């Protein structure tokens, strides 16, 4: 049985197509404006209400909140600026060096940095073989190796006390048009306390120093009225996100950009919650692994 229905449109924007318009035929434009709001668009900037979008920061949680997360001062506050480091070709292809890199569409050779560090995976799993990993393998923004250059590489790890209330401020220093980085935290969900761009219209590009100054002056937007609970959030281009969570799940949890090609060039870190005493023992005869370094022979 066939039922006659009025004509209808379905219009999709996939990936990073931005504000592109799609019509079946350019000679037949729609006669009315497209009024449906987009939830969490890629260009999410929500300092002021928008008629065309609903940002994550506009949502309210339907779930009961941990009131301690909404305290004025968290136990731990971490600022995490992220950006790209662009190699000079002669720097990258120095003999006997094997640095990772991505060739971007424009031909640039680059790696990702969070807090000026590009993540390198450890040789063994941290959860079951932490004692097998050399201490010098680890670093963070407060503990960088003295010989670490602008392309600093290590297993970027941030230590958090168990049950601490943690505030993370992500700052986009990439500032590439039509690119909003989606960050995902394993092992926890977080409340999105605030997101936006600098309220100072004279500042064209945000950076860590400016974000710290905004925070000091109380100008980083935060709202504590039922902030939504997420495990992934897109950081506004040239903007910031303020997120909070209770670190009540001990272990080693990856925090990373969800673009695969940014992950492999270092836009990650490990959130280490608690201590070894907070973890269950490794099961007997649990498999072990490490770097496979084959013997090298010269003829």
Summarize the structure in words.
This protein has 299 residues and is mainly beta. 7% of the residues lie in helices and 27% in strands. The protein is built from 4 helices and 16 strands.
Could you give a quick summary of the protein structure above?
This protein has 299 residues and is mostly beta strands. Helices cover 7% and strands 27% of the residues.
Topology diagram in text:
Layout: E1 38-39, E2 53-54, E3 76-86, H1 89-92, E4 102-103, E5 109-114, E6 118-119, H2 126-129, E7 138-139, E8 153-160, E9 165-172, E10 181-185, E11 190-196, H3 208-216, E12 229-230, E13 232-235, E14 240-246, E15 251-257, H4 260-263, E16 268-273
Write a concise keyword list for the protein shown above.
Immunoglobulin-like; 299 residues; mainly beta; seven-stranded mixed beta sheet
CATH class: Mainly Beta
What oligomeric arrangement do these chains adopt? single chain
Per CATH, the superfamily is Cupredoxins -  blue copper proteins
Please estimate the helix content: under 10%
Alpha-carbon distance between the two ends: 79 Å
